[in-house]
Amino acid sequence: EMSEEDRIYHYEKAKQKSIRFLYFIQTEMGYNNLSIDKEEFLTRDGFPKMPYHRESRRIKGKVTLNLNHIKNPHFQNNALYRTGIAVGDYPVDHHHNAHPNYRELPKLDFYPIPSYSVPLGSLIPENINNFIVIEKSISVSNLVNGTTRLQPVVIQIGQAAGILASLAVSQNKLIDKVTIREVQLEILNNKGYIQPFVDVSSENPNFISYQKIGACGILKGVGMNIGWENKTLFYPENDLIREDLIVGLKDYYNLNKYPIPNLLTIENISNWIIKVSGEEKLRFKDLEKKWNDLGLKEYNLNRIIKRGEFAILIDKYLNPFSMFEVNFKGQIIKND
Fold this sequence. Notes:
Helix content is 35%, strand content 7%. The chain is mainly α. The strands form three sheets. It has a two-stranded antiparallel sheet with strand order 1-2. The longest helix is centred in the first third of the chain and has 24 residues, at 4-27.
């Protein structure tokens, strides 16, 4: 820990490094029209009030997001993706050339990852009550910090922290007693993302349903890495696949009691939802009207239902997102 005098000294060193880089740009590269904007930060020398640090000391949180959670989010012991409160898509980007022995360090090229969710538990210290941590001090591994440090991610983290704090105060609860789903729902209601689906924008009328069912893991997004682009797609227009559905539903419903039909037609899926819900109000005589009321198209009982259509129906009539709470590890908390 530095004293105030040491901090001033090292801040000045950082400024001098920036000035040398600016001199190089102006002289060696010929961009003599570039300089320091004295109106941006309103400081005496035009510099920010403190230097930008790519890395900080980090907490040990309720959970720690590591590279495996990002690379294969649906195949880990802990389903942290279910607890997402922010999303990111920047590469795992590290800069080690300033290290005195950087040539001896392991070479860290951009490790291929999909886009990802940041879990709520990474903002909450493991052994400190009623405390929320944000920015680059959240509970992530050194490698993961290479992507979660980016400004779009830390801005979302700050927004989620504000929502969490507000809910805790309004409910007179400790931070870690506010339910994860409450925080996520508030984010969604404000057009924030909890799942990184690039093919469904927050302006889509079904955005919240897709996000909720994706956060349950009932329908999983497909992640991919294309150079600098890291993506996850929900594919709402694709036909629903029975094998995928069984994997997604088995943690929530008794599939021995309510078996998934072999043919996933609109009729069969609607009948399955009716049985699980126990609601006679979903009988087929008014199903077409309900289908249209939900903004769905191409009503045909005999065709295969699409992923997006199923997400809307199960969200509307079974609401697993709110009916099944999850803990910080993404484990489902089942009511007795």
